[in-house]
Structures are given as structure tokens and as C-alpha cells.
Amino acid sequence: MKYKTRFFLFFFVMVLFNLAANFAHPVTPTVIQDLNLHDYMFGLALAAMMLTNFLLSPFWGKINEYISSRMSLLICCMGYGVAQIWFAYATTELQIVLARMFAGLFTGGIFVSFLTYIVNTAAPEDQGKYLTINATIKSVASAFGYMIGGFLGEFSVKLAFLAQAALLIAVAVGFYLICLPDGKTSLKQVPKKQLMKEANPFQAFADSRKFMSVAFAMLFAVNILINFGNTAFDQAFNYYLKDVLGLTSSYNGIIKAAVGLVSFVANTTLCIWIITKTKIRRSMAVIIAVCTVSALGTALVPNIGIFIALGVIVYAGYSVSVPVLQSMITVQSRPEQKNLVMGFFNATQSLGSIAGSLTAGFIYSVHAKLPFFCTFVIYGFGMLAAIGYMRYRGGKNAAE
């Protein structure tokens, strides 16, 4: 199979995965309310998944060197599908938390494997472009997955979960058949003691010292903060539509589809222009500033139409920031460290998402608008971190 054909099919299956991965999100608020669970469960459930995602992401980044990204995708997509069947039939808060934690064991491996497969098998001149395509697919297909899940939820909540599980298992096989093996060492050649060490998630985080620098620390701080802000906003926004505005899952899906269209246009025009034509450090700070101001607007405006429009801007700004930040981190990574760096990148995304989902869930119980104020504050800190990185790199380049 030709190089470009293989990557076209890889991205096509990635679209199917990102569609499926989001079928359950628009119906989750309905599940929580139908089961008479606490409001904070919308945040706690996601945080439970992101916790295990966070702990296992560096491990998957390292284990891919031995079993290859395609084997990880086969294992993780199938495991995720099984986890969603568990979630579909959970009836208590504990069962939901455990099902979400089980899903998190595998979701980290999926997103890390997307990144490691691209950096390991794409030609150097294509890596930036393909990483942008990866981030664009995640934003756009996820939004349309919301829409499909929302309409499935109008017929049956369980239908959304079961359709999700079936498609996840199908794409697991698809990835395995399409992807080339990219492992660098046979697992059989790795001593058991070393393998046990690699399986320790805390050791994997400790190994980040091999590449960590002041510039990396600033970039990962930006990554944590924008994911904190985006997750807090996203979780509260979805639940707010159902709880306060009384909209059904299909409306939630339609709004997310609109977000997907805006994100697609932004990523295929603005994002590429930023990466290729601008001072990317400065552009990153501007993008986060736009998200910050828009988040404040959602917290203050009473008009529903303006509230939704500003929400779309927050989502679109985040979708553009991800490939821009990935590009900044990839350029700074040494070739032999890219798997580890990409694993750590995904882990810091999860860390921000854990904080964001937990915070949004619990403060929503105090007041429904508080998560939107929280998003404004956190994005504000992210903007300051981006400005700090811009000045640090600018000063360093001037000194050189």
C-alpha cells in the first residue's frame, strides 16, 4: 500500500473513532438525571476516566516502542468499547465511576498512539501537517459524534452506548489492518524487570526529566491550563443545556455540530496560516486571550443566543490552540525522545481535564454559572503562561 494511501485510510478510521468516542457524551446528562444522581456526577465521571488516562499515557507512549502503535490501537479501542458497554448498564454512582476509570485505562493509549504513529512513520516534512490533521479530526469529528449521539439518544440512551461500543471495536480491527508496525524493539527482548519498570506510571513521569527544560515546562503548563479551562467549560456547557435550558440531547448534538463546522474552517485556514506564516508563540497567546474574553462573556450575558455563540468561539479557539501547541512541542523535541514527549503531552492534557471536570462538577452544584467564571480565570492564567513562554523564547533567541 502506498504511503499516502495508508495515511488517508489511517485518518479515515480516525474519523470513525472520534465520531464513536463522542456518542455517549450528549446523553450522559440524561443518564445522570434519569438515575437521580447528584449533579456533580457529570464532572466526577469524566474525572475518573481522565485520572487513569493521565496515569497510563506515558506508559503507552513508552510501550509503543516495543509492541508498536497499531497493536496499542487494537488493544485500546477494543478495551474502550467494552468499557462503554459497562457504562451503558451502570445504575449507581460507584458503577459509573468504575466504568469510567476502566475506559481511561485505554483512552490514553489511543490518543498517544495516534501521535506516536504519526511521528514514527510520517516523513519529516509531513509531520507538522499530519499532526494538524490529527487535531482537526479530533475537534471536528468529535463535534459530529456529539450530534449523532444526540439523535441516537432521542430513540434510546442505551442505543447511543451500544452503537458506540460496536463502532469502537470495528475501528480497532481497522487500525490494526491499516497501520504499519512501528515498534523499535521486540517485546520478547525486553527483560521482565525492565518491563515492570516501564509499567510503573510514576516511573514514566519521572523519566520526563530526560527531556524537560524551562521551555518545555512552560509549554506543558499552557497545555494543562487550556485543557483545564476547556474541560470545565465543556462539561458545564453540556449539562447547563439540559439542566437549566431544558434542551434535549439532539439540541446538544446540533450545537456541537455547529462547533465542528466552525472548528473545521478555523483549523483548515486560520490554524495552518498561524503555523506557517506567523510568529507562532505570539499567535498562541492571542488565541488563548480570545478564549479568555469569550469565556467571561458566557458567564455574564443573559441572552441564550449570545451565550451559545460565545461558547462556539471558546470551543473553536481551543480547537485551533491544540495543533498550534502540538507543533511548538514537536519542533522542540529530539527525534529519539518524541514518543516520550508525546506521551507526556497527552498526560498533561489529561491532568488539566481531571482538574477541569472535577472543579466544574462541584462548583456547578453551588451555582450553574460558576464553571464559566472558572473557565475565564483558568484561561487567563493560560494566557499569562503563553506570554511568559513568548518572552522567554524571544529573550533566549535574542541572546543567541
Structure notes:
84% of the residues lie in helices and 0% in strands. It is globular, with a radius of gyration of 20 Å. The protein is mostly helical. It has one domain: Growth Hormone, Chain: A. It contains 15 helices and no strands.
In short, what is this structure?
Helices cover 84% and strands 0% of the residues.
- The helix content is over 70%
CATH fold description = Growth Hormone, Chain: A
Give the mean pLDDT.
84
Quaternary structure classification: single chain
Main beta sheet strand tally, sense and closure: none
User: What's the helix-strand series?
Assistant: HHHHHHHHHHHHHHH
Q: End-to-end distance, in Å?
A: 45 Å
If helices are DSSP runs of H or I spanning 4 or more residues, what is the number of helices? 15
Low-confidence stretches: none
State the total count of DSSP E strands.
0
Supply the CATH architecture.
Answer: Up-down Bundle
Strand content: under 5%
Look at the helices and sheets and give the structural class.
mainly alpha
- Number of structurally distinct domains: 1
What is the radius of gyration computed over CA atoms, rounded to a whole number of angstroms? Answer: 20 Å
* CATH evolutionary superfamily: MFS general substrate transporter like domains
Instruction: Please state the overall shape, judged from the principal axes of the Cα atoms.
Output: globular
CATH class: Mainly Alpha
